[in-house]
Amino acid sequence: MSKPLIEMRNSAIHGNGVFAIANISEGQEIIEYAGKRLTHARADHRYGGSSITGHTFLFTLNDDYVIDGNQDGNDARWINHSCDPNCRAWKIDAEDGNPKRDRVVIEARRAIDRGEELTYDYGIVLDEPYTRELKAAWACRCGAKTCSGTMLKPKPRKPVKKSR
Question: How far is it, in rounded angstroms, from Cα 6 to Cα 47?
Fold first, then answer.
């Protein structure tokens, strides 16, 4: 059995966080994001479909499913967002093509020193308009020099139709 790389404890960024308890190499796989697979509709039903909470353990897996870290989750659900992250999340497609079996793993974007908090960019894009209230609910507290102040990402631009 390999030596643990991480542990969950209180974070200066937000609530709980995940910290390296050993040095981690760039590109090293750290942990898989675990939890029950739910359809998007089931997740909306279960959690009310509200984006105002600013807190979720739901990780979008693909067009069909999300991973609910609240159910059968692990320490990966405690990794906080940062605008200057030291980790990234990768989706791994299931070999049999079943989208319910797709996986998400967290790996180091760079070398991470023992004691450093692990973070990744949540990349949250919501369907509804980004109101002041919504931005406040999804406020970023990462403290990075490049912090945008929100975990919300700009919506993709829609092409503008030219008139003749």
Answer: 29
